[in-house]
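COURSE: Structural Biology Practicum
ASSIGNMENT: Worksheet 4, Part C
STUDENT ID: 0417
INSTRUCTIONS: Below are two proteins. For each, the amino acid sequence is given first, followed by its structure token string. Answer the questions at the end about the second protein only.

PROTEIN I
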Amino acid sequence: MRSILITGCSSGIGHDAAHALKARGWRVFATCRQQGDCDRLIGEGLESFPLDYASEDSIAAAVDETLSRTGGKLDALFNNGAFACPGAVEDLPRGALREIFETNLFGYHDLSRRLIPTFRAQGAGRIVQCSSVLGIVGAKWRGAYVSTKFALEGLSDVLRLEMAGTGVEVILIEPGPIGTRIRQNAIPHFEKWIDWESSARREEYTALLDRLYKPQVKKDRFELPPSAVTEKLIHALESPRPRARYYVTTPTHIAGLLRRLLPTRLLDLAIAKG
């Protein structure tokens, strides 16, 4: 039985992926930050225990737990958990960037490093990184999240080059708009770090606040369900020759094309027009 460790399984992409892969015969270790969410997943028939990217001790304990259950083997890792902290770049305190990088980049890196020796010893393993269309192009008000995903793209590209010949595949999945709770989950981080009322952009924050706090009545344009990401994940895990990158949603395909074709000024104009 093939086995995989997945992070961020309390909802959205991770939750869908965990159940879909279990149905395909994978042994899934579906981790979450909170024990309560782990208990719920256990009730759904999944193997689950805590993993908090922001805690080195939590990551180490989760790796130990995984390998103890498998007898020291693992076929794949899906780094998925992440959060956003919306706000203008000029309003982001140092602490906000430090906090988001701890989870969205350093946690991914730490967890991957701890499992690479297992993959090396086996001569095979797959590290799948959940990036974003915002790892290809930037977007206003999303500077903190964008910076972590750009960094993840670069780090993953280098890791892929360095793992060549070891049997360890490093793969990026780049979703665009997906129906998850990332917007709702961003609210506590926005409230903690962004002093928008004192910002030079106070008037501009009106639209952001409406989007952040008002209930979502209809899907975003081009939005797809989490299963669209799972479909690409399955190919990344099960194909004999996985791609280095998997685009998910129309905006990601468009962004990738424009990034390759347009000079920076024209790309800026295209992004500004939406």
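PROTEIN II
(use this one for the questions)
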Amino acid sequence: MRSIWKGAISFGLVTIPVKLYSATEQKDVSFHQVHRDDGGRIRYKRVCTVDGEEVPYADIAKGYELATGEMVVLTDEDFEGLPLSTSRRIDVLQFAPAEQIDPIYFAKSYYLEPDAQGAKPYVLLRNALESSGQVAVVKVALRQRESLATLRVRDGVFVLETMLWPDEIRKPDFEFLDEDIDVRAQELKMAESLISTMEADFDPTEYHDTYREALQEVIEAKVAGKEVVAAPETEEEGGPAVDLMAALRASVEAAKREREGAPAKPERAASGSSGSSGSSGKAKAKAGKGDKGDKGAEGEKAPAKRKARKSA
């Protein structure tokens, strides 16, 4: 990792020099836009919409468009007088219980490493914060933007998590929130039973990005000059179950069997009876397609499996 910012944690009269590192990285397969015929890279030019001329980067300014369509042009001098802190400080504002901060506020995570002369006060504040069970609410300026953030301890290191401002959080304004939807006590109890059955300690290593892995295999096959084999067709997601109680009951039974290590296919098939007739018809039609030699032995079971997935 390379540090992307240097500054200091300001805690009362204590200053702790630190380096900032990105704590996360997006694992994705990146592509370039290319010419289909010869693979040449596609380049874009910065062209002015008024005179049609290509504009050098040095002549490009920031523009704010008004509701009337008019453009207000801002120069570097306009930004110089703004109250953006340039002190490179992480100012501790207060301490608060972590549960009081809604995770929706968090934007990005960074690691903080102490400089050699700041190791002792770093460890002192880290240990004190960890024993308090709280997080530090701080303010910091990164990339021409001032942000609220929190400091917490993870694996012996301070994690700085930048936050959105309150007016950046959208309010959920959905029609169903104003509707009087009746949920029966039996349905609620069955849903709670399903949650209880599926409860387990979270281990993120159990999950992986199957799409990215499959895409990487396609690329490697192309590089090796091999034939690209299409991935098996996934089952379609169906609509909501007509009989919610039956679907919940079947889901609980399936979850129990999966936890015990036994196959859960019979329960999923049974729950298919609660699906809609339209979804059932699609499943049957889909089962009839493809290579009959591969599906002949399971031709009668395929519709039931698809229906079970829909109702669950």
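ANSWER KEY EXCERPT:
Q1: Residues 264-312 have pLDDT under 50 and may be disordered.
Q2: The radius of gyration is 28 Å.
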